[in-house]
Amino acid sequence: MKEYLLKIDKEILLWINGHHTDFLDQVMWFASGKLSWVPFYLAILIVLILKYKKQSWWMIILILPLITVSDQLAASIIRPIFERLRPSHTEGLQNILHYVNGYTGGQYGFVSAHTLNVFSLATYLSKTTSKNLRWLPYVLFPWAFFVSYSRIYLGVHYPTDVIVPIFLGFLNGLLFFWIFRKMKPLIFRDSNIHNR
Q: Quick check: 33 and 179 in contact, CB under 8 A?
């Protein structure tokens, strides 16, 4: 069973990575860029501030530990435990994959920190704004899937490297939503974001 799943994992990777074009190369390179989404993040922050005014700061402050936890969970805990080589560092694959701008990533790829980060953020913000910004999940989750897909396209992650942190991201986002709900009454004793 394990061998079969690994075979499917490899085949899906090769199919996605193999269907490349110059245009898609640039799109997926952009999607995986660390600074590519700064304007997007700023737009989200502006929306939160305009909608929630002074109450937005507690929601925003929690984003930093949220991303720190998800990033460290992927890079410092899960990867050292499993030590699964990225496809771009795997013998038999590394020479047949298509790479963009020579990018091959670090040694280990399970799990994708990109995916864990974006799904943690998408889940957290979708839950904390569910009463007032019902359209936000329709922006955040397609964005999260797009970023995650780009990691497979670029040949630096297997599909399972991306699928597992999607679920972990949901859990991490829900954890910080729970923290937000528990702490909010202590910070804003006279107001309730969800009942404005």
A: no
Q: What tens-digit pLDDT sequence spans the chain (196 residues)?
A: 878 888 999 999 999 999 999 999 999 999 999 899 999 999 999 999 999 988 888 899 999 999 999 999 999 999 999 999 999 999 999 999 999 999 999 999 999 999 999 999 999 999 999 999 999 999 999 999 999 999 999 999 999 999 999 999 999 999 999 999 888 776 656 444 444 4
Element (H, E) at 144: helix 137-153
Give the number of other Cβ atoms within 10 Å of residue 141's Cβ.
Answer: 16
**Model confidence, pTM:** 0.91
3-state SS of 51-68 is: HHHHHHHHHHHCHHHHHH
Rounded to 10°, the helix 2-18/137-153 angle is 100
Q: How many helices (H) and strands (E) does the chain have?
A: 9, 0
